[in-house]
Amino acid sequence: MIRFGAAALLLTCSANQLLAAPNNGDVQLDRIAFGTVYTGATVEASFMVFEAGTEANIKLDVTAPKFVKVLNKSTHYQQFGKGNDSVCGSVEIAIDTTSARELSGEVTVTLGKTTAKVPVSAVVKPRRPGLSRVLLVESPFTRYSTHDGTAFKVWTDLVNDSPLDVSYLLVSPGGKPLLRDLDLAKFDCVFLSSLGLFALTPKDIERVRAYAEGGGRVVAAANYFFNNSVRHANAVLTGYGLELQAKEAGPHGRNDVTLEESSIDPELVKVGVKSLHFFRASPVVVTDRKTGRILVQAEGVGQPGDGFVAVGKAGHGEVIAIGESLWWWWISEKQAKGTDNAKLLRWLLRPRRGA
Predict the structure, then answer these.
(1) What value does the mean pLDDT take over residues 146-158?
(2) Range of 186's domain?
(3) Residue 84 contacts residue 21 (beta carbons within 8 Å)
(4) pTM of the full predicted structure?
């Protein structure tokens, strides 16, 4: 098992699903539906195909429609319990967003003797004034997120109904700067989560902090469940009055809570965030009341005055900490349980002028 894969597989198990041994031809993600994106956005995703066996160096062929660019392909061996050996063929892709149009097609993958097809779709719209540009580091559409490509529907509906122009970056650890040569000043919000936090280089952290201090909004989503994401988030948050805690409510505590208006900042209540649900969330401590404040109070873990969501001033901008690492699952209908998690996320991803 490759080390990066071992860490990333926590994502798959996160949605309360124990990773089962795959069958020949199984695909994870089984479909990639980006929904609405805008011209010029960076839109990346990955998936993997499985074939039984232990020989990682088998042939992997990929055929994609013209609007899909294959960024990388590779194979590795994975063991899913004793006697359940699989070869995983991983494929990383990007879609062409140079012009407005509807995109739909299938990527065909042949791994050894196994062939699978993965539907890929997006609606590319013209960029227009008033959109809030968001950089997601990392893309939720990845091979380690879930096998079910419909799990992102709440997120894609949110983007379609909101003035959010989202770019999706894949994470490929290896010491290279994760943020590449992107001009962060062009974005209204930089959102860091899970493997994106893991892969930040010292140079990336320096750039993200400079972006926040220059007037940007940085959101970091991390919790104790996703090992070490809290430590990496705190490297971004330090000095801005916030500190995530590497803890969660114990198995006999309240790790599954629904919070009502009394636990939510009045500014959020005014925009319709009236109830929220958290599962295995980690608390945020405000270390400096002059620069940081709680937006959503913690319950069942931490000390009085801690929060599950908090904001801190960073120069001319701000940083926000969320005690949930798997944000796309946190806002899903199954996990939100009829609360306003998605509405809160929408507010967090937009600058103050548009909140």
Answers:
(1) 95
(2) 173-355
(3) yes
(4) 0.92
